[in-house]
Write a structure and sequence with these properties.
Oligomer: single chain
Number of helices: 10
Distance between the termini: 64 Å
Mean pLDDT: 71
Radius of gyration: 26 Å
Helix content: 10-25%
Shape: globular
């Protein structure tokens, strides 16, 4: 009846790989979600399979009618598990499992999705229809990650590389534990854990960021090694690999200022979104589960052990040991499951991890910094959340610690989730960040962004429009003077928007960054900068023809694509634009420099923004603090 087109969409920025159904006759290149409408009447035959389609050699969908009901099922064709989201728009039909269903589809098996039941309304003849949208991710949404496993850094033992982006607690779980390692282009990438290769993509350009290897582990999680050289895969789908085995060659710089390897271990939440996991990496000192931006990390063989301070693991099951939870650091891990140790949670740092699951240790959460992590799950430790800074993290989940949230700044982060700390949100400014989610802390409310003053940003202003185009076309926040100049042009110029946008799109920066790219690569780059994903195949073909025929310019295409954003694409673009505005205003308010490497750092920061976070609460000081004053 129709000719569906399969679209695969991968984004290393948002960690998404989707399969969608597209109705060819309704294709519009700026859309982000497509449907396959089906219309039937009651004259279909009982037991008839009225619709069946297969996609990408991964799964088939079948709709089978039985009198006045339809059973919707999926059949796996893949050699790996899938999680599939199935969304229905129904007319005169009900779905027994609701109109949005997430289904785990084991390899080579069949899964029931839902039954559609016709609403006849007492009539003997009624028209009914459904639109079905599919999105899928590799992996099983029901798995649990083995938190005890010690990973190897994904490069050869003995080598040391910088962490360009480490764990970022302010980000949602979809991107919180992504790590970018500063591997030079062509460096050997090794398996961080044993597993089975389930997907290899290495046919894209080395600077596209779209080449990847996916590996399934024995606990069902999926490791993603992203940004490989073109043709750089050293393994094939179906291969069984061992930790430390060479699997690929790392790629070039993309949105970042230097080459990198993107690594994360994930599992699907549903067919549309992933969650990342905090990993424990083997180090020369034992184990590290807190990988921070700017760290230099050295790869070691986890089987070689390594030294620790009070035991590698959790410092004792129960209370972490009666006394001080271990002499040294209370144990590498969580300082003990329970209360982190009766006493001081360990002489040293209260345990590398969370200072103990419970109250962070009875006493002061550890003599030192209250534990590297969150100072204890609970109240950050009974006392002051740790002598020092209340714990590196959030000063404790709760109120940042009973007392002042820690002597210092209430914890590096947000001063505690709650009221920024009972007392003053931390002695200082309520925590470096936003002063805590809640009241911002009594005192100075926290070091915020110095720009937006908590006001909601109006998307209908010219300055918003200009900033959106900076994000779309250049992938970065605009400079303060530039944004205001272009906004004034939009407000006062007799030129039309198209004339202005074409002037905006011609610059030395454009030539330097994009001048060597072909049309396909330019369009792909626009989609990455706006939405963190590749263009749909049909959309890519459409815009390539439009630009190469001379009917539109690249800048005009960027404007139209941005205007056509829907659903998750729209959320991502809006969030990136709002955060970009806050950064631009913050740079101006704090008199920061914004040139060369500053711009590159801002690009990296913006490309980490997804559609799930709160753009007004997102901590931009982690970027602004790295910029020098003019």
């Amino acid at each position: 009846m129709f000719s569906p087109v399969l679209v695969e969409v991968f984004s290393p920025k948002s960690l998404k790989l989707e399969v969608l159904i597209v109705r060819e006759s309704k294709l519009k290149p700026v859309q982000s979600l497509y449907t396959l409408p089906l219309l039937f009447s009651l004259n279909s035959f009982a037991g008839e399979v009225v619709e069946s389609q297969c996609f990408a050699n991964e799964f088939c969908v079948a709709v089978e009618q039985n009198d006045d009901t339809f059973d919707v099922t999926l059949q796996s064709l893949a050699s790996y598990p899938l999680t599939v989201s199935v969304d229905f728009t129904l007319a005169n039909l009900n779905s027994t499992n609701g109109e949005s269903v997430a289904v785990v589809l084991p390899e080579s098996e069949t899964a029931f999705v839902t039954q559609l039941q016709i609403n006849t309304g007492g009539s003997s003849s009624v028209d009914y229809s459904w639109d079905i949208n599919f999105a899928r991710l590799i992996g099983d949404a029901t798995v649990s990650h083995d938190g005890e496993y010690r990973y190897q850094f994904p490069f050869n033992t003995g080598l040391t590389y910088s962490v360009l982006k480490g764990y970022t607690e302010e980000l949602p779980l979809s991107s919180r534990y992504i790590v970018l390692f500063g591997l030079p282009e062509g460096s050997t990438v090794v398996a961080a854990r044993n597993g089975r290769v389930v997907q290899v993509v290495d046919s894209n350009a080395s600077n596209s960021g779209n080449n990847q290897i996916l590996v399934e582990h024995d606990d069902g999680t999926i490791a993603r090694y992203v940004n490989l050289q073109s043709g750089g895969a050293l393994v094939a789908a179906g291969d069984t690999i061992t930790r430390g085995q060479a699997i690929g060659l790392s790629g070039a710089a993309t949105f970042n200022a230097e080459p990198y390897l993107y690594f994360a271990t994930t599992s699907p939440v549903d067919g549309k979104s992933l969650k990342t996991y905090q990993l424990a990496f083997a180090t020369s000192d034992g184990t590290s589960n807190n990988i921070e931006t700017g760290d230099d990390v050295t790869s070691v063989d986890p089987d070689d052990g390594g030294t620790g301070d009070g035991g590698t693991g959790d410092g004792g099951t129960g209370d972490g040991g009666t006394g001080d939870g271990g002499t040294g650091d209370g144990g590498t891990g969580d300082g003990g499951t329970g209360d982190g140790g009766t006493g001081d949670g360990g002489t040293g740092d209260g345990g590398t991890g969370d200072g103990g699951t419970g109250d962070g240790g009875t006493g002061d959460g550890g003599t030192g910094d209250g534990g590297t992590g969150d100072g204890g799950t609970g109240d950050g430790g009974t006392g002051d959340g740790g002598t020092g800074d209340g714990g590196t993290g959030d000063g404790g989940t709760g109120d940042g610690g009973t007392g002042d949230g820690g002597t210092g700044d209430g914890g590096t982060g947000d001063g505690g989730t709650g009221d920024g700390g009972t007392g003053d949100g931390g002695t200082g400014d309520g925590g470096t960040g936003d002063g805590g989610t809640g009241d911002g802390g009594t005192g100075d409310g926290g070091t915020g962004d110095g720009g937006t003053n908590g006001e909601v940003i109006d998307p209908n202003t010219s300055s918003y429009r200009v900033q959106e185009l900076y994000v779309a076309y250049y992938g970065r926040p605009g400079d303060y003077a530039g944004v205001n100049w272009w906004a004034t042009e939009l407000d006062n110029s007799a030129q039309g928007l198209v004339d202005i946008i074409n002037t905006f799109g011609t610059s030395e920066e454009y030539e330097k960054r994009f001048g060597s790219l072909n049309t396909d690569e330019l369009i792909t780059n626009l989609y990455q900068q706006m939405f963190g994903r590749e263009a749909e195949a049909a959309g890519l073909a459409w815009w390539t023809d439009e630009i190469e025929s001379g009917r539109v310019t690249l800048a005009e295409a960027a404007m139209v694509i941005a205007d056509g954003a829907q659903n998750e694409d729209l959320s991502i673009l809006n969030n990136r634009t709002i955060v970009a505005i806050r950064i631009t205003d913050g740079i101006e308010a704090q008199n920061k420099r914004y040139i060369f490497e500053d711009i590159e750092a801002a690009k990296v920061f913006i490309q980490g923004i997804d559609g799930e976070l709160d753009p007004y609460a997102f901590d931009i000081n982690s970027l602004l603090d790295t910029l020098v004053e003019k």
